[in-house]
Design a protein that fits this description.
single chain, alpha+beta, 5-stranded mixed sheet, binds dinuclear copper ion
């Protein structure tokens, strides 16, 4: 008796926990859910999921219900005789082969239709974006506008966008949960995926991910998608097509180095998009001299005469022509660094330049800070390393590239 009431208490406690967790889950926004699609592509996948869930539930309830009914109805009773034994029944065999085949029809027909519809060529007039996967960042090219950027894309609402996917190294996979996906980015092969962000969408930002394991920093291969109104897109394009503006002379790096998050300015600075702000903790032990102010002009000089230009291109800086790393034109207007790993603030950027390989395992970007330990080369950076003042200057320069 006591055991029974304890069991009941335990059961009710368990129910409370489940209920609390469910409610807590409902409280939060679900920025990476696939259940609230914002494109026709997302909706067609969502429809398939709903159909499968519905049919699966019906089958489950009928089969399990029938099973439980038969277990109870025909359970062995006192004095029962051994029932007649049969082996094989052609009619029943045919029936229970036909029923699943019939159910499968309701799943297969819409599935195959969706596959063909979404694999067809995108409609004429679609905005083409070339997506090139790199270990571990995303290169985005808008051939129509001559724009090359990295880790952030802007899409006009209501216009079909056709992503043309390839990879520079290993297989990656492109996924924007709320808009659609996923599709692999493969070397020597071009894959396509197209979708139309709903024209009713208010300006918003979406998280994008690499969903194919691609090495040490696979989890830090993210991107941001900004869906904006067509006129906002037009002004973004106009800005991106011009070489980076270079006005600000000095950026106070130290002010931001206290770790104050207030420095993080989101392109669409709204609390609703808090989920798009990276929260990767800075690795322990990373330090930067306080009280430094970077000088953008000095930074430009250091940048242009150091290894930086071998990997990064900046339109408007004739020395910066590298194409191994992300194109940094308009870098100052991006919201994250390290492919969505950290907020793009002077503080994080300074640490990134100082020792990117500590912040993102095995990243190609070498450790640049003087006396810093490079975990890939397994030695300290001696001669040629940058001191904190030089890094602060580069930060000021990159931040001036709005
Ligand atoms: Cu790229 Cu995982």
């Amino acid at each position: 008796m006591r055991g029974n009431s304890r069991l009941r208490r335990l059961a009710s406690f368990g129910m409370m926990v489940v209920l609390a967790l469910t409610l807590a889950a409902c409280e939060q926004a679900h920025p990476n859910t696939t259940f609230t699609p914002h494109s026709e592509y997302g909706r067609s996948i969502d429809f398939l999921w709903d159909r499968l869930l519905l049919l699966g539930t019906i089958v489950f309830v009928l089969v399990e219900g029938g099973l439980i009914y038969i277990i109870f109805r025909y359970r062995k009773r006192e004095g029962d005789e051994r029932p007649p034994q049969t082996h094989g029944n052609v009619v029943i065999e045919i029936i229970w082969t036909l029923i699943p085949a019939f159910i499968l029809l309701f799943i297969a027909v819409p599935t195959v239709r969706t596959v063909f519809r979404t694999q067809a060529k995108a409609a004429a007039g679609a905005l083409e974006i070339e997506v090139i996967g790199h270990q571990w960042w995303w290169e985005f090219r808008y051939p129509e506008y001559g724009i090359i950027t990295a880790n952030e894309i802007y899409l006009p609402t209501g216009r079909t966008v056709s992503f043309k996917l390839t990879s520079n190294d290993v297989i990656h996979s492109f996924w924007i949960p709320q808009l659609g996906g996923k599709r692999d980015a493969v070397t020597n092969r071009t894959n396509y995926i197209w979708l139309t962000p709903d024209s009713t969408l208010q300006p918003a930002v979406w998280n994008g991910f690499c969903t194919e394991y691609c090495g040490a920093s696979h989890a830090k291969m993210r991107f941001r998608v900004f869906t904006v109104k067509p006129d906002q897109f037009a002004s973004w394009v106009a800005k991106e097509r011009k070489p980076a503006a270079f006005g600000t002379a000095a950026t106070n790096v130290s002010a931001a180095l206290g770790g104050s998050e207030a420095d993080y300015t989101f392109p669409l600075n709204q609390p609703a998009f808090e989920y798009a702000k990276p929260h990767t903790p800075v690795p322990r032990g990373m330090t930067f001299t306080r009280g430094l102010t970077g000088n953008a002009h000095r930074g430009q000089q250091i940048f242009s005469t150091s290894a930086c230009v071998g990997c990064h291109a900046i339109v408007g800086n004739p020395a910066a022509l590298g194409n191994i790393g992300p194109n940094l034109t308009h870098f100052g207007s991006r919201s994250t660094i390290g492919a969505g790993s950290y907020p793009n603030t002077p503080a994080y950027l300074a640490l990134w330049i100082k020792n990117a390989r500590v912040m993102k395992p095995e990243v190609l970007m070498p450790t640049l800070g003087k006396n810093e330990y490079d975990p890939v080369v397994k030695s300290r950076v001696a001669t040629g390393g940058l001191d904190d003042q030089q890094i602060a200057d580069i930060v000021a320069y990159l931040w001036a590239l709005k």
